[in-house]
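Could you help me review a protein record that somebody else here produced? This is what I was given.
***
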Amino acid sequence: MEAPNDPRPYAIAEPVDPLVRRMLARNPSPFTFTGTQSYIVGGGDEVAVIDPGPDEPEHIAALIDAIGSARVVAICCTHTHRDHSPAAAPLAERTGAPVIGCAPLTMADEGPRADAAFDPSYQPDRVLADGEALSGDGWTLIAVATPGHTSNHLCFALPESGILFTGDHVMGWSTSVVSPPDGDMTDYMASLQKLYERDDRIYFPAHGPAVEKPRQLVRGMMGHRRHRERQILRQIGEGHTRIGQMVTRMYKGLDERLWPAAGRSVHAHLIDLAQRGLVAQSGEDWTLAA
């Protein structure tokens, strides 16, 4: 889906909950929709910033202005793609706040989008394990480990408001790209099931609108991925044994710029299907398992 052309409220702190303000970075693209959304959590003297975004001076200055005189307790990153975490270091330098959240992950990414490359500058002061919490004046953030989109992906729950900040794991505008070798479809599906079993009231993703019926969306996303599995098995059965062949048939109408990303997700499905004994690989070709 393309980002809309209408003006967006960039660099403006928009209240979306008594404890949360949302700010949009000016980095729209076919992969980021209108841009990366940073969240300022806390309505009192202590706040946290979730997904500070790209290292863009306008965005960082707007975050500093919105934070005002409050003390930043933590700068939290859901994962370390370059549209999410690079602003953590300059924001920490300006505020003195620790960077707390996902683990660092530095690896070569020859993927289909430049902003999906991993951020080598990310150096957290504290890594949160699943279920670990941090707190400030009137709020608590609890880490929810959700590997799949990346192996280090975390969501953050705000129990005082029933909010889950979902990063790139669940978005209302698009499905998440699962790109091997780090992206893992088996983990991604397990993480979706994990969220489906929770009772969060609303999701705030890093891209796109809030998700007001989260369990309904997650159920649909799991169904969508199972549908893709069936498509892939059918394509192989019809003799379309290479990923490129599958993409052009399965993603009709998709912007061709997104075909490489679609190919990565197909590859992730194939790896998962192979691990389950349903397909086998021979060079660039995939076959149904005997």
The longest strand covers residues 139-145. The chain has six helices and 14 strands.
